[in-house]
Amino acid sequence: MNPISLFCILAGVALNACAQLLLKAGTNAVGHFEFTRANILPIGFRLATQLPIIGGLACYVVSVVVWVVGLSRVDVSIAYPMLSLGYVVNAFAAWYLFGEVLSMQRLIGIGIILIGVFVLARS
């Protein structure tokens, strides 16, 4: 994998992870909600007008463009598993930004993911 291909794949992963974090920040701003017929429009409007959610959706759009460029250069059997790096990024970012718990079990899972990506990248 050449540097440009690697950049496209990692940029796609980073943008996807950023999108998830922004969506979480937007839903945190709205708070816990239930979708019912009575509140689907008010909650939908509140969600649609949250800047972090708009930013998250924009990150998704850009990530798809970057990802398509990456897929044009890298086998999908290599590129797609690289998306699991997003789990690692999001776990640590959610711990740092949102105070989510990183239990030993989660850290072991993250380690397994990193080992798998390393083995895959070396193939």
Automatic annotation (TrEMBL):
Membrane topology type: Multi-pass membrane protein
Annotated transmembrane regions: 43-71, 78-98, 104-121
Domain of life assignment: Bacteria
Endpoints of the signal sequence: 1-19
GO biological process: lipid A biosynthetic process; lipopolysaccharide biosynthetic process
Principal location listed in the UniProt entry: membrane
GO cellular component, one term: plasma membrane
Record SUPFAM superfamilies: Multidrug resistance efflux transporter EmrE
GO molecular function ontology, one term from the record: transmembrane transporter activity
Keyword Membrane: yes
Keywords: Cell inner membrane, Cell membrane, Lipid A biosynthesis, Lipid biosynthesis, Lipid metabolism, Lipopolysaccharide biosynthesis, Membrane, Signal, Transmembrane, Transmembrane helix
Residues of the EamA domain: 53-120
Localization per Swiss-Prot or TrEMBL: Cell membrane
Record-given protein name: Small Multidrug Resistance protein
